[in-house]
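Tokens in:
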């Protein structure tokens, strides 16, 4: 969830955080010594985790700060018919529809005689612009609800795998709050991240898993990320550490096939993939830099996020029964940061200081009939002051931003759907710096796919 949209060049004003195409040719199990791989990853992980002492103290302090922000969510103020305006925009978006051709490239993986042809990335829409690499593939008893139940059944004791007994490494899995993303593959074409899971709270750090059902397969991206100080946004800092973390949990789950538990793919996505902005990287403690394989010294360049470009297929031969229930979380984050103006920007030096509370709530229900529903809502009224990013001095009058963000998803035996709505309005619209942004995304296995954006700025020159 983000008011600080497009925050890659974020200007951090505080030093401490406030919180939280290649195709696979075979898939032959005999060519893959999975036990040796597990041993190697287990030993290297033990060595890395011994280096995390100062990081863990830092994370515990940040977690304590986050806990202090949790409280009952205040009711939304109607003000200026905002909800009616959003409803009108959603209705317009729903009528638009989107032709969504297959993205490129597509790759194929095989298990025995069965294969999956898919896009080895996630996206934020229906283009071929990648967001995250697919680094895990689930086969067998692999419905996203099976994966959720399997991870929910585990406790947080990962000491046997070399992980330390502190958050988020000793946390249990929970339903995650995260952007809806798109995937493509199988006979159904486009799919959405209907189920998202996290190990660790929203901040200060967590492992975040997005699941995309593609027929009888499920593909996923998992990453390790930190909450960017003073915002509601996360920054990915590792793909590989997160992949090893999930693999470790499925090894101890006892659900993997005993004969062919795991199968590696060939290189299917770009390596390395994306970067950590230097100003964020330089704020990481040394032990965390070591754990993610980054340079130990401060840098003056954005640091590539390492990955080997391979995914691992987890062959699930057993399952945990789904547990019906309703899960709810409510908390408040204080936005307090200087960021690039997220929309209606006049140029690369157009920065704003944004301050105010963002109220967040999520409800997840899994029914006795196996139907999964998720609903997330965030709202806030924040002050927005244009500033000189080099000095922090105000360069204009303070305006008011009203922000709304909603995510919804449903997963049944026959249907998978997910949608997201983002609305941000800086008022008065008639004043310099005023503007409005609306984005809507809907992806469904029924073929109803929509990606729509509407932006209003003060003048044509700033649109």
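Residues out:
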């Amino acid at each position: 969830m983000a008011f600080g949209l497009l925050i890659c060049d974020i200007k951090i004003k505080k030093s401490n955080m406030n919180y939280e195409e290649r195709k696979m040719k075979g898939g032959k199990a005999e060519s893959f010594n999975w036990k040796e791989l597990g041993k190697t990853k287990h030993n290297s992980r033990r060595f890395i985790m011994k280096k995390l002492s100062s990081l863990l103290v830092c994370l515990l302090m940040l977690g304590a700060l986050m806990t202090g922000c949790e409280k009952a969510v205040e009711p939304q103020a109607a003000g200026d018919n905002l909800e009616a305006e959003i409803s009108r925009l959603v209705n317009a978006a729903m009528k638009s529809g989107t032709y969504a051709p297959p993205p490129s490239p597509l790759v194929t993986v095989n298990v025995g005689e069965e294969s999956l042809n898919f896009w080895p990335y996630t996206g934020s829409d229906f283009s071929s612009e990648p967001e995250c690499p697919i680094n895990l593939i689930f086969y067998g008893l692999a419905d996203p609800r099976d994966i959720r139940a399997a991870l929910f059944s585990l406790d947080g004791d990962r000491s046997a795998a070399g992980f330390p007994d502190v958050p988020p490494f000793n946390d249990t899995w929970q339903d995650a709050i995260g952007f809806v993303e798109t995937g493509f593959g199988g006979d159904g074409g486009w799919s959405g991240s209907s189920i998202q899971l996290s190990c660790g709270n929203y901040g200060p750090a967590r492992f975040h898993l997005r699941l995309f059902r593609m027929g009888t397969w499920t593909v996923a991206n998992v990453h390790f990320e930190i909450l960017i100080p003073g915002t509601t946004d996360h920054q990915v800092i590792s793909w590989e550490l997160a992949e090893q973390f999930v693999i470790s949990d499925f090894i101890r789950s006892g659900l993997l096939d005993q004969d062919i538990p795991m199968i590696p793919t060939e290189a299917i996505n770009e390596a390395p993939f994306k970067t950590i902005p230097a100003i964020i990287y330089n704020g990481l403690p040394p032990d965390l830099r070591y754990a993610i394989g980054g340079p130990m010294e401060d840098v003056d360049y954005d640091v590539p996020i390492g990955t080997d470009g391979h995914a691992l297929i987890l062959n699930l031969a057993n399952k945990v029964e789904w547990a019906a229930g309703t899960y709810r979380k409510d908390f408040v984050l204080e936005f307090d940061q200087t960021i690039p103006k997220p929309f209606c920007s006049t140029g690369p030096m157009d920065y704003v200081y944004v301050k105010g509370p963002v109220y967040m709530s999520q409800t997840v229900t899994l029914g006795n009939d196996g139907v999964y529903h998720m609903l997330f809502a965030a709202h806030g009224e924040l002050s927005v002051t244009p500033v000189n990013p080099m000095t922090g001095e105000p360069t204009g009058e303070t305006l008011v931003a009203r922000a709304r963000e909603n995510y919804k998803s449903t997963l049944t035996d026959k249907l998978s759907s997910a949608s997201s709505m983002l609305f941000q309005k800086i008022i008065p619209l008639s004043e310099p710096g005023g503007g409005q942004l609306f984005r809507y995304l809907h992806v469904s296995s029924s073929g109803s796919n929509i990606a729509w954006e509407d932006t209003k700025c003060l003048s044509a020159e700033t649109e």
